[in-house]
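In this section we walk through a basic example: taking a raw amino acid sequence and producing a predicted 3D structure, encoded as discrete structure tokens. The instruction is simple. Fold the sequence below.
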Amino acid sequence: MASSALIQKLEAIIEIKASPKQIHDMLANKKVFNLNLARTSGSDTTLEAIIEIKASPEQFHDMLANKPHHLHHACSDKIQGCDLLEGQWGKVGSIIRWRLVLQGKAKAGKDAIEAIDSDKKSITFRKLEAEILTEYKSFVYTIQASPKSEGSGSLVHLTFEYEKLHHGIAQPQFLQQFMVDVCKEIDAYLTRQN
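The resulting token sequence is shown next.
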């Protein structure tokens, strides 16, 4: 599908905050499809990004689902540590504490693993404790790795679903960019290992 046809199709479905030239450049580079797709229903909003990586869906999913405590090796400037507080690595219902550097500041947060789908290579986390919850009633994020339609590698689909405390709160684009960067660094780590 030509870029202009895709842009027209996207414009018909969503409000695009990127210019047609920016979208064309993203599609031409085929590295990060971060169109800031936002769907809003009342105060519930969804923000998405898609990143092309070289690692297989299996490698990427295994690192996130079963070895998140190793992520600090891949991106130590962003993830300082990950501790299992309850449950088992890779199991639904487990509680994890993240130690992060977000926007240049040390942060800590607690997430529950809400869903894992090994077939679809997806994992869903729900924020239980985090500074972000001072602006959002709820915050859930899903990371799914799918095989590319051509060639090796994967497409990682990030989905953030959240409910704002009020309409004046901005979308968490800083967190979206943080996660895009983390995914790229995980990919570099996994493909460097081979």
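Looking at the output, two observations stand out. The two ends are 34 Å apart (CA to CA). Helices lie at 3-13, 20-29, 57-66, 71-74, 173-193. In the next section we compare this with other chains.
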